[in-house]
Design brief:
about 300 residues; 7-stranded mixed β-sheet; 13 helices; 7 strands; globular; binds S-adenosylmethionine
Length: about 300
């Protein structure tokens, strides 16, 4: 942990399973200005937000969004001003960052952070169905109010559509074989059953480094949560939401996201909207990966609105 990142809010860090990724790097790139207005578009348990809030101080304003009301409940406790001195006002909002401009208006923020993907809270709760390593319902919704669940994708999509989802959002070469096996095994009700079906269909590739269900679970999760559409909407609205000089910091966890972030920032620079601050993505140090294996695939990119 870097200088000045000493204490940890409740539910974040040791014991909770959730360790904020690239924390010092994200805070450094945001260059938090005391008294400013900052948005944490993926507040999660409030790990990054806590560090932003400390630097904002009492005159500042922190706005946090999350699709997951369970995460917001924990963030609310971690970011409350109770027992803290010189603490900013904190507004927590339930919903997707895709609608951020309509919700918050334009020209408001001195900085915005998005730490994409799933939190350890979500992965760790077997009942929510994110993990193929635990027995749970086929849900995978970050927002429990959303309509589409993994169960509907797995049991009701036709074979071709299912294969397309697995290929497009999981970059899974065996998408057709896996989709066929899923359709033949219906109904599939649990994560363990789905994972077993995928493993059996992928049996000839046992030498792989990752679990055979990794890519298919990723694909279904991205599809169910509209993760790439939401990211594209965020990238489009960021220049409007930020003030001139405002910083955008995005941490992504797979190539489908990072490619979109890289292209949007380059395009923004080409059209004079922003200056890219990271010529190459910033990745976690060996020490961080050791402490927190989730950081292994993290890529941070940042830009400043001109
Ligand atoms: C990796 S976690 C963030 C962890 C947080 N930075 C912390 O330190 O506690 C990602 C969070 O983003 C939320 N999320 C993902 N996509 C979202 C979206 N489109 N809009 C709002 N929240 C989203 C998830 O529900 C999850 O809580």
């Amino acid at each position: 942990m870097g200088e000045g990142l000493t204490d940890t809010p409740q539910g974040v860090g040791h014991g909770s399973g959730h360790v904020p990724v690239l924390l010092k790097e994200a805070i450094d790139f945001l260059a938090v200005r005391r008294g400013g207005t900052y948005i944490d578009a993926t507040v999660g348990l409030g790990g990054h937000s806590y560090e932003i809030a400390k630097r904002l101080g009492a005159p500042g304003h922190l706005i946090g969004l999350d699709k997951d009301p369970a995460a917001l409940d924990i963030a609310r406790a971690n970011l409350s001003s109770s027992g803290k001195e010189d603490w900013p006002s904190v507004t927590l909002l339930h919903g997707s960052f895709a609608g951020i401009e309509e919700r918050l208006g334009s020209g408001l923020a001195d900085g915005m952070l998005a730490d994409l993907g799933v939190s350890s809270l979500q992965f760790g709760d077997a009942a929510r169905g994110f993990s193929f390593q635990a027995e749970g319902a086929l849900d995978m919704r970050m927002n429990p109010q959303a309509e589409l669940t993994a169960e509907q994708v797995v049991n009701h999509f036709d074979e071709r559509k299912l294969a397309d989802v697995i290929y497009e959002f999981g970059e899974e070469r065996r998408s057709r074989r896996i989709a066929r096996a899923i359709v033949r095994s219906r109904p599939i009700r649990t994560t363990k059953h789905l994972s077993d079906v995928i493993s059996a269909a992928s049996r000839s590739m046992k030498s792989e480094r990752i679990h055979p269900a990794t890519r298919t679970f990723q694909a279904i999760r991205i599809f169910v949560n509209r993760e790439l559409e939401d990211l594209e909407a965020l990238l489009e609205s960021a220049p409007q939401v930020l003030r001139p000089g405002g910083r955008l910091v995005i941490i992504s966890f797979h190539s489908l996201e990072d490619r979109r972030v890289k292209d949007a920032l380059r395009e923004g620079e080409r059209s004079g909207l922003c200056r890219v601050l990271t010529k190459k993505p910033v990745t976690a140090s060996a020490a961080e990966v050791d402490r927190n294996p989730r950081s292994r695939s993290a890529k941070l990119r940042a830009a400043e609105k001109t």
